[in-house]
Amino acid sequence: xxxxxxxxxxxxxxxxxxxxxxxxxxxxxxxxxxxxxxxxxxxxxxxxxxxxxxxxxxxxxxxxxxxxxxxxxxxxxxxxxxxxxxxxxxxxxxxxxxxxxxxxxxxxxxxxxxxxxxxxxxxxxxxxxxxxxxxxxxxxxxxxxxxxxxxxxxxxxxxxxxxxxxxxxxxxxxxxxxxxxxxxxxxxxxxxxxxxxxxxxxxxxxxxxxxxxxxxxxxxxxxxxxx
Length: 227
What we know:
By secondary structure, the protein is an all-alpha fold. It has 11 helices and 2 strands; from the N terminus they run αααααααααααββ. The longest helix is centred in the middle third of the chain and has 18 residues, at 88-105. It is an enzyme of class 4 (lyase).
């Protein structure tokens, strides 16, 4: 079993340093050219792969370019336009509602506060954090997606289970200067090495400090289940 460092702070610092070396170009993988496209793409990415979202938005963003375009479309039209995205019917309604709210309440501009963003349909704290960080250069939290949720537990950085609780538990542990980068590093590592079902622990740069290493640990701390 890997030996985690003496404190969560030291563990987090080691994770960031090693993954920075492993993934020097780590960044968001969604494709967008403005704040509205970023917001739409992140909403669509919930429970859907970024790769699939990028395929769908390539055409979507050609047709729907302004908040008014989304507001004036029907939910059915938008659902058809994003067919292939998980829960496309529900998300079609979100896109229409987002367009309406941005036009009515924000003068056609994507808002730049957590409270205003999370008031939009289909936008939770995770989505709002991404839009703030990459659309407005405002970093006030850590985006906790499924990869961050899994790896932060697996690495012994938190014992919390819900994304919101995990974020609050990580904020004092991960240096603020690395809050944004931390998410992308864990996403890259989760995709490349530390997947949910069969992590490649023998190829992992964090194996020696990972208390979940299946090379000799009995339990995956991410799930609480035996390997």
